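Hi R.,

Here's the chain you asked about this morning:
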Amino acid sequence: MRNLKNAAMAFLIPLPSIVFYLFFLRQNGRSPSSSIVAASHPLLLSNLIFFVNVDVLFYVIALLQSNHWMIDLYWTIIPVMLIHFYASHPLARANAVRSMVAIVLTYIWSIRLTHSYFRREKWEWGTREDWRFNEMRKEYGKHWWWVSFFAVYVSQQIFLIGICLPLYAIHSSTKPWGFWDFIATSTCISGIVIAFFADTQLYNFMQRNEVLRADGSPTVPNLNNGLWYYSRHPNYFGEQLWWWGLFGFAWNVGEGWMFVGPFVNSLCLVYVTVLVERRMLKREDRAEAYQVYQKRTSVWIPWFKFGIEEHKLKKG
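And the predicted structure, written out as C-alpha cells:
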C-alpha cells in the first residue's frame, strides 16, 4: 500500500504546476499581458512555479513522511518539464532543429536516469532517501526540520534552474543550426552512453555481491572492470559530459555566460566524489583494495592505469 500511495503521489504532485501553466497559456496566448510581470520573464515564472510546487509542496510532504525521497526522483524529470515550459512559452523563439534535438536528447537523458534510479531502488517508490540527507539529518538534529527546506529544496532550485539555463537559451534564439550544435549533440550523446554503461556495470557488480553475500561467500571488494577499470567514477564523468554538451548549445547562440551552470555542477561533483570516496574508505571490507584502486585509477576521465608497483603502493 505504501508503494502504491507513493506512486500515486508522485504522479499527482506536478498537477498544480501543469494546471496553472495551461491556464496561463490560455489567458496569454502568443501575447503575454504586460500587467503580469512573470508573463514576460520566462525565467522568473519558472522560478515562481518551482518554488511553490517543489520547494513548498515537496517540503510539506517530506515533513509528513519524514523522508525527502521525492526530490531525487524529480531531479530526473524537472529538466523535461523545464524544456517544455521554455519551448511553449508565448515569448519562445527557436531554431526548429535545435529545439527538437534538445527535446529528444533531454527525454533520452531523463529516461536513462529515471530507469537507473528505479533499478537501484528495486522498482519501489519512496523506500529511502539520499544517504547524504541522512547524514545531514544526524548533523543538524532537531533543527533539520527547517534546515532541510533550504538544504534540500531551495538549493536544488538554484542548482537545477541554473544548470538548465541552456534549455532557455535554445528557446530564445533563432540562430541557424551550426557546427557547434553538432559538437554539443555529440557530447550529450557520449555522456548519456557512458553514464548508461557505467551505471549498468555498477548495478551488475552490486547484484553479484548480493548473491555472494546471500550464499555466505566472500564478496568482491571493488569494481575494477569495464569503464570502472579506467575511471573511479565514470558515471559522474558521463553526467558531466551531458551538462557540458548541453551548454554547447547555449555557447552557439551567444550565451557563453551560462557556463556557470555546468561549472558549479562540476564543483559540486568534486565535493560529492570526496564524500563517496571517504565513505568507501570507512568500510573495512573495501578500504585496502580501494586505496590501491585510488592510486592506480583516474578519478573521472577514463584513462590507462597508472604504472605504480605494488611495493610502492604499500609504502604509500
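The beta strands are 93-94, 172-173.

Let me know if you need anything else.
M.
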